[in-house]
């Protein structure tokens, strides 16, 4: 099974990267909508990081990983 997640990357006041993962995103991913949502997250200032407020967008990426369950004896 392939599991997917959308990773939103922000910079905080300390210049460190803060990542927010959204599991099972709706595809296809709309880059313009992602950018708009990231702007709204920064403006609303609802997430706290150890390096201060989120101040800028760094990037976004779609992550995919293949997961194989093992049957244990």
UniProtKB/TrEMBL annotation:
Superkingdom of origin: Bacteria
InterPro entries: DUF2922 (IPR021321)
Listed name of the protein: DUF2922 domain-containing protein
Organism ancestry: Bacteria, Bacillati, Bacillota, Bacilli, Bacillales
């Amino acid at each position: 099974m392939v599991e997917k997640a959308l990773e939103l990357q922000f910079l905080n006041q300390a210049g460190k990267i803060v990542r927010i993962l959204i599991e099972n995103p709706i595809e296809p991913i709309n880059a313009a909508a992602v950018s708009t949502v990231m702007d709204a997250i920064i403006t609303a200032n609802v997430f706290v990081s150890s390096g201060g407020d989120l101040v800028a967008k760094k990037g976004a990426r779609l992550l995919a990983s293949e997961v194989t369950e093992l049957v244990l004896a």
